[in-house]
Write a sequence for this structure.
């Protein structure tokens, strides 16, 4: 009688794992809030610290530059030394540096603090996702956990403007950094009790040269992309990107030649892995680019406060969370390729609504558009992140998580750079300045909508009204081009997802035959 092959029985997550997930969400919320809250503090910190224009750009940008450069090395180090250990170190460091940043006496000190926040933040994010991969080994439970993890990002994006706006109405600019302290203390207290340590049982050697090469790749690449949003395509943006790509080629070449690479770049030959990374990146691209336009339109065109603008965005962010949780049940019966592609099509529909309603004074059309986009982003991000993690063994979850996080960061800066540049170009081509303006004020007004709003405060009534009307119309004129590019990108991405992910079948949420539990630090399975 032939032998019957039995599928491995994996332990379902219990109460401890779900409580551990709740603790992990504190770190996710914190990083998500930190990504959005600083922009609202820029006016008050500019008055207090009097940074130069260059210093102000570094205050804003240095966090993302350091974070993007260190995500992959920190993910690999977490695989080697332990994901929980990296999470605890990152948590403690992030909290302490946040307290220092809140009382920074100068722009230079704040730049240094923001760089350190990027350093410790790079420890946090790969650790959270890789710990989830090892705590939730049953695919159905893992997808729910990843949906909750993605919801933490959306919730943080919603809380940033609301909490930041509220704090800045009552306290000084540094209060936005102190948000980290009450959030991180429970993580430090309960994390060691609820989160099981896990690591790669057979880690490769530490490769300092590979770490240096990936940093030399990501830092100039992200810097160049960010420069596009402020100076457009030119030497200042193309040279850093070219340098980053050269170092990136050297990094890939080294990984292919090493018997134990820091990052197995052969993963990208797997269409499911590379397709999921692309879908994740473009979903974030769509959401961040949309928020960039929506936040400015609500505040600078419609005159809402940061807090009220944040409240207007809540329905869309709430639907992001709901759709991310709902899609977990959908993929039990529908191929993940259809779920991801449908999410990207929803994003395209959202941009279509913006194309039709974005130049109206009533914000209802934009709010509906953001709700539609939220449905698409929530479903596409949840499934793409799950497929990324499912494509690698649990022991390599840190490196895979780092790639997913890097795609998130690159998608965010691309959304700001590409769509922001189009908005800026439309604004600069459409703005008409009143005669007799001060040259400094005229220069500021011709660059950005925010500059025009500030310049209008120094003008007489009729001139101020004319400038504001022209500036607002010029800003909204970029909506057509921005929305068109958003629609085309999302539709192309949806088609690519259908092709790349077509081999993945729907499942009932039970473990696949090749799912193996990870080995924890103590030699037990998670």
């Amino acid at each position: 009688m032939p032998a019957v092959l039995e599928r491995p029985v994996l332990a379902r997550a219990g109460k401890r794992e779900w409580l551990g997930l709740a603790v992990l969400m504190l770190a996710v919320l914190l990083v998500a809030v930190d990504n959005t809250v600083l922009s609202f503090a820029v006016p008050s910190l500019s008055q207090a610290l009097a940074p130069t224009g260059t210093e102000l750009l570094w205050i804003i940008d240095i966090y993302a530059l350091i974070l993007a450069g260190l995500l992959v090395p920190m993910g690999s180090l977490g695989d080697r030394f332990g994901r929980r250990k990296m999470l605890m170190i990152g948590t403690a460091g992030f909290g302490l540096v946040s307290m220092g940043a809140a009382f920074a006496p100068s722009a230079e000190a704040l730049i240094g603090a923001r760089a350190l926040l990027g350093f410790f933040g790079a420890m946090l994010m790969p650790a959270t996702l890789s710990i989830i991969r090892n705590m939730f080994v049953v695919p159905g439970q893992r997808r729910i956990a990843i949906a909750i993890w993605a919801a933490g990002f959306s919730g943080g994006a919603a809380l940033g403007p609301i909490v930041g706006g509220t704090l800045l109405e009552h306290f000084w600019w540094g209060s936005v950094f102190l948000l980290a302290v009450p959030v991180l203390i429970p993580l430090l207290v309960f994390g060691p009790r609820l989160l099981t340590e896990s690591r790669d049982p057979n880690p490769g050697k530490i490769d300092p040269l590979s770490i240096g090469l990936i940093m030399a790749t990501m830092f100039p690449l992200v810097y160049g992309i960010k420069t596009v949003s402020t100076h457009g395509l030119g030497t200042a943006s193309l040279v850093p990107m070219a340098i980053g790509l050269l170092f990136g080629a050297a990094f890939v070449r080294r990984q292919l030649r090493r018997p134990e690479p820091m990052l197995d770049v052969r993963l990208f030959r797997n269409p499911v892995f590379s397709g999921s990374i692309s879908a994740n990146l473009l979903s974030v691209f769509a959401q961040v680019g949309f928020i960039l336009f929506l936040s400015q339109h609500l505040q600078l065109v419609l005159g809402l406060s940061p807090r009220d603008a944040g409240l207007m965005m809540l329905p869309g962010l709430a639907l992001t969370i709901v759709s991310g949780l709902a899609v977990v049940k959908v993929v039990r019966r529908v191929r993940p390729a259809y779920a991801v592609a449908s999410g990207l099509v929803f994003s395209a529909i959202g941009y279509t609504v913006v194309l039709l309603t974005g130049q109206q004074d009533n914000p209802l059309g934009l709010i509906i558009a953001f709700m539609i986009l939220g449905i698409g982003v929530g479903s596409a991000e949840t499934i793409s992140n799950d497929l990324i993690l499912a494509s690698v063994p649990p022991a390599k979850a840190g490196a895979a998580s780092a790639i997913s996080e890097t795609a998130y960061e690159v998608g965010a800066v691309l959304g700001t750079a590409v769509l922001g540049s189009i908005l800026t170009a439309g604004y600069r081509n459409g703005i008409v300045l009143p005669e007799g303006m001060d040259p400094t004020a005229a220069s500021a007004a011709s660059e950005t909508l925010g500059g025009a709003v500030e310049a209008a405060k120094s003008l007489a009534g009729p001139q101020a009204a004319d400038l504001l009307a022209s500036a607002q119309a010029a800003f909204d004129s970029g909506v057509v081009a921005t929305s068109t590019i958003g629609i085309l990108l999302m539709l192309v991405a949806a088609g690519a997802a259908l092709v790349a992910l077509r081999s993945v079948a729907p499942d009932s949420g039970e473990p696949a035959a090749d799912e193996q539990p990870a080995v924890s630090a103590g030699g037990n399975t998670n």
Remarks:
- The CA atoms of residues 229 and 418 lie 7 Å apart.
- The two ends are 35 Å apart (CA to CA).
